[in-house]
Write a structure and sequence with these properties.
FAS1 domain, 424 residues, alpha+beta, 31% helix, elongated, 16 helices, single chain, binds 2-acetamido-2-deoxy-beta-D-glucopyranose
């Protein structure tokens, strides 16, 4: 009985640990001085990245300072500038005034983008005379232009929010802007990332044009690697009607800017570009530690790497072709009318009975000698946090890393406590 009680306590503690404990948007919401800062955290989706991390410090700017920083800069530039204001360490006012040797360099979220050469991704915190604390870029020659003004909020030792009087600017961060979405050549980026088959398909089907016209309002692509199309179990795409192929390809896209940190916090099923009145075409997101998996109801795939994160465009690679249940669901189709074998019909837009995933009787143009369905993208490590930051070629990231080791350690401590109690 006691043991059972403890078991419940331990299990719930573990469950809480795996879930994010803070919500920066909610923390700042009651504070009108930071409403502009908060608005930008939401728009750039940095809020999601902040919410998936522990032991961090957010240096906030009041509305006037934040408005001045944002200026007319594109979202991707503002996002990088704000990333420099998220320190990957917990500093409450006490710790600020107790910095050893009076000065320290601390890592920021900007460093995790892999696009901050030298010390650009670090912030210098220096305990100045008279109780003043100065902040500045750690890049050589930078001044400590920003000062700590006051403590805003702390949830020890998860997140600390401190106000500084001026933005911290790293050299070049505002003037040499991160690539904006309009600079990104989608097909070139996909080809470079090893997704040539996907490029061929979206080009020949005309879906590329749909993607390109969606970019300005926000677009996220999940591009299957070339290996993914060769894997066993991938249906013969040559047997799909045009409309089905278009739906399948549009199923690999979201009509929103959804960077990795945001994917991680997504709980409800997400709609895709293929979603329409007649078909759900949705995806479920599953997160385990650093890994994000997309579940279609028919198959699932790991999100393997971030190819582009340039607000408002995100491109990821995925290990498997995402097979929408609307086309490939195994359940006997509700069949509005008889199901013809395959008719190259002029494209009904509703759910169309399709060949079952296993029934690749005819050789697929994409089918080739055995490739394991779960094979990792060429050149990338198959597992582990490092996989997420591979191939990051743009202004981001996917460097979003929550130490899975912490969760693991907690789970194993919990289990050993349970076992020892049960044995005693
Ligand atoms: C954080 O709070 C905002 C505003 O209440 C909400 O829209 C958002 O979904 C929350 N985020 C998470 C991860 O719960
Ligand atoms: C921080 O900046 C100050 C002023 O430029 C410099 O004297 C100090 O050495 C820097 N601290 C570190 C840890 O580099
Ligand atoms: C800090 O986060 C942990 C879980 O990550 C949570 O259990 C704890 O309550 C949080 N502390 C505060 C003060 O919110
Ligand atoms: C984009 O890259 C492709 C190669 O993948 C190239 O053929 C095309 O001309 C490029 N488009 C633009 C607008 O530069």
């Amino acid at each position: 009985m006691g043991a059972l009680h403890l078991l419940f306590l331990t299990l719930s503690a573990v469950a809480i640990t795996a879930v994010t404990a803070h919500n920066i948007t909610d923390m700042l919401a009651p504070l009108p001085d930071y409403s502009v800062f908060n608005k930008y955290l939401t728009e750039t989706k940095l809020a999601d990245e902040i919410n998936t991390r522990d032991s961090i410090t957010v240096l906030v700017l009041n509305n006037a300072a934040m408005t001045a920083l944002a200026g007319n800069h594109p979202p991707s530039v503002i996002k990088n500038a704000l990333r420099l204001h998220v320190l990957l360490d917990y500093y409450d006012p006490t710790k600020l005034h107790k910095i050893s040797e009076g000065s320290v360099l601390t890592t920021t979220l900007y460093q995790t983008t892999g696009n901050a050469p030298g010390k650009l991704g670090f912030v210098n915190i220096t305990d100045l005379k008279g109780g003043k604390v100065g902040f500045g870029s750690a890049a050589p020659g930078s001044k400590l232009d920003s000062s700590y003004t006051k403590s805003v909020k702390q949830l020890p030792y998860n997140i600390s929010v401190l106000e500084i009087n001026q933005p911290i600017i790293a050299p070049g961060i505002l003037t040499a802007p991160a690539p904006s979405a309009s600079d990104v050549n989608i097909t070139a980026a996909l080809e470079k990332a090893g997704c040539k088959t996907f490029v061929q398909l979206i080009t020949s089907s005309g879906v590329l044009k749909v993607f390109e016209s969606a970019v300005s309002k926000g677009l996220t692509l999940f591009a299957p690697s070339d290996e993914a199309f060769k894997a066993k179990g991938v249906p013969d795409l040559g047997k799909l009607t045009n409309a089905e192929l278009v739906s399948l390809l549009q199923y690999h896209a979201l009509a929103s800017y959804t960077p990795f940190g945001t994917l991680k916090t997504t709980k409800a099923p997400i709609t895709t570009l293929a979603t329409n009145g007649a078909g759900k075409y949705d995806l479920k997101v599953k997160t385990a530690g650093d890994s994000v998996t997309l579940d279609t109801g028919v198959d699932s795939s790991r999100v393997a790497s971030t190819v582009v994160d340039a607000t408002p465009l995100c491109i990821f690679t995925v290990d498997n072709v995402l097979l929408p249940a609307d086309l490939f669901g195994k359940s006997p189709s509700p069949a509005p009318g008889p199901a013809p074998e395959v008719s190259p019909s002029p494209a009904p837009s509703g759910p169309v009975p399709a060949p079952a995933p296993g029934s690749a009787a005819a050789p697929s143009p994409f089918l080739s000698p055995p490739a394991p369905p779960t094979s990792a993208p060429a050149g990338g490590p198959a597992e582990g946090p490092a996989a997420e930051s591979q191939n990051s070629s743009s202004d981001d990231s996917a460097g979003v890393v929550i130490a899975p080791a912490v969760v693991q350690a907690l789970v194993s401590v919990a289990l050993s406590v349970i076992i020892s109690v049960l044995l005693s």
